[in-house]
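Now for my pick.
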Amino acid sequence: MGGTSDILELARDIRNMRIKVLVAKLGLDGHDRGAKVVARALKDAGMEVIYTGIRQTPEQVVETAIQEDVDVIGVSILSGAHIPLMKRLMNLLKEKRVDYIPVFLGGSIPIPDIEALHKMGVDKVFLPGTSLKEVIKYTVEAAKRKRGYREWRDLGNY
């Protein structure tokens, strides 16, 4: 994403799609500044953002995602419990048959853990220092993929 035309196209996509994003803090971690910054950036970009607050369980996040019919789920974890929490979240999404919702994770994630997170179904991992523009761009692309998959699934292909 480089020039002004790319930014204008991205803004047009956001406006036309009415993207809905769930931003959640999983586990006992109470440090929510990063999650709030990301939630605000997505909102300022024109997306509808549901921020669940701190100390959410995977069950609460999945239930909210289903009830709100979100396009993308964003999770923030700084506690070091990202592997068991994300494994539970991804398993619940599969059990509820909504594993087509893209999930991104942000936080202090050790590089060696990223591959395991991808294998369990986490679509994208953002590390400290990631630009907000990159998060916004990813979210738009993920929402497009989710909506395309959902249309395919609704035609009886799931």
